[in-house]
Amino acid sequence: MSNDDAENATKALSCIATAAQTIRQAISISLPVAPTQLMTMQIPGLVINPEDYYWDQNSLAFAPLDVRINEARLVDNMVPVAKMMMGRTGKSVARSYMAALDLLVPVEASVSGAIALNKGKPLEPRLDIIRERYNRSMAYLKSPDDLSPGKSRLTTYVDKQEKWNKAMEQYSSAQERQMSISKLEAGTPEKQRQAYLEWIQAHARDYKAMIQARYMDWVVHGFKFEIEFNFGVVDISSGMKRVEGSKEAFRNLVLIGSDGASEYSGVKLNPSN
Asked: N or C end: fewer C-beta atoms under 10 angstroms in the chain?
């Protein structure tokens, strides 16, 4: 490259940077950003087809799956901590989030292996106390249920939990069926919502009563709190409940693409249109 070409390229880049900075300042003035937030402007900007995100709220009560997937793909692009970004980074917000969660491992999570694999061997006082608690809790989990011959207390816990889960699934399935019926029979979205709310008022109490009954049976006869307490001692890494809860919430938001294989993390954009 000649000196003139290099000089022209430098001037072009300087013009682009000046234009980008001017545009960013204008946008930041019109859209104030809180001191705790950072506004990043992408150059060149992303071309969006509005039809990919539009759905008729007058005829549909819920956004179609293809629109929800397009929204998920739109916000999944990782934005760097910078004032400007040159094109898309190629990094996924969802994958980066899961990778960050996987790194949040408690220090004592590694202790469980030492406890389980070094039975009878001397350990430092702190680990010896943890091993003793571990052994007592494991003995409780394996102990027999006197009211159910042939079953351990843990097995009884699992059976009661399964019955509670089935009651929850029945309620969820009934809600989904009613939503489908409302779409077909009620007409406008407003009438659909009204029909669904009327169904909730008429039937929700029955389902919730069944769920409560199963839960009480689980607590009283299923050793619920005792099992969970002792399992929390055995499963030392369960101290990271919030991490596991975040992973579970993340999995529940996954949308399956039309190809049946691609997965996207669902989002909710406001305003909806």
From this structure: N
